[in-house]
Amino acid sequence: MTMRALYQDIYLFMHQVVGISTSGSFGVTDIGLNTNVFNLVPTAHPNLIAGQQISDVRKATGLSQKRTGSGYEFVQTLQQPSVTGVSVEMTTKNLGAWLWLFFQQGVSQGGAAVYKKTAVPYTDSDCEVWASIARVLDTGSQSHQVDGAVINQLAFSGVEGGVVSLTADFIGSAFSRIKDVDTITTAIPSEVPFLHQNCTVTLGGNTIRLQSFDLTLNNNAERRYYNSTTPQKIVLGDLSVSGTIVIPWTQTNYDRNNALADFIAGTDQLLTLTWGTASVNEVVIKVNMRFSGDPDILTDKQDLSLSLPFIGAYDGTNHAIEITCEDSVNRGIA
Question: InterPro entries per the record (predicted)?
Answer without folding.
Answer: Phage_tube_2
